[in-house]
Amino acid sequence: MTTDPFDTAALRDSVLTAWRGSPTRFREDANAEDDLRVGGYRDRLLVELAQNAGDAAAQDGVAGVLWLRVVYKPYGPELRAANTGAPLDADGVAALASLRASAKRAGHQVGRFGVGFAAVLAVTEAPRVVSASGGVAFDADRTRAELAEHEKLAELLAMRSDEVPVLRLVWPVDPDEDPVPPGFRTDVRLPLRPGVDPDELVAQAERDAADLLLALPTLHTIRVGERRWTRVDEPDGVVRLGTGAWLTRRATGTLTDEQAGQLGVEARTRPEWSVCWALALAGDGTPTPAENDVLHAPTPTDERLSLPARLFATLPIESNRRRLLPGPAATAVLDAAADAYLALVRGLDGPQRTVLVPRPGFPLSEVDEQLRDAIMTRLNGTGWLPAQRRGLGDLTPGAARCLDVPDAELADLLVDVVPGLAAWWLAGPEHVHALATLGVRRLRPADLATAVSGVDRSPSWWAALYTALSRLPDTGSSLTDELGALPVPLIDGRMAIGPRDVLLPSPELGELVAGADVAGLRIAHPAARHPLLERLGARPADAADLLAAPAIRDAVDRAVADANAGLSTDELAGVVLRLVAASNLAPGEQPWLGALALPDADGNPRRADELLFPDAPLLDVLAADALGPDSALGVLADDVAAEWPVDVLRAVGVLDSFALVRDENPIGPDHDLADEAAWWETVADRPGVTLVGIRDLDLVDADAWPAALKLLGDEPETRRALADPRGYPAWWLARYALLDGRPPRDWRLASAADLAGLYDVVPDTGLTVELLAELGVRSALAVSDREQAADLLARLGDPDRDVPIGLAMRAHAALADAAQAEVFDPAEVDPPDAVRTFAGTVVPAEDAAVLDRPWLLPVVGADHAVAARPSDLDGPLADLLNVPLAGELIADMPSSAGEPVAWSDLGAVVLACSLLDVPVPSGSVVVHDELVVADRRVPWWVNGDAVVHTEDSPDGMARALAWAADRWADRWQLAAILDDPMPTTALF
Question: Whole-model pTM above 0.90?
Answer without folding.
Answer: no
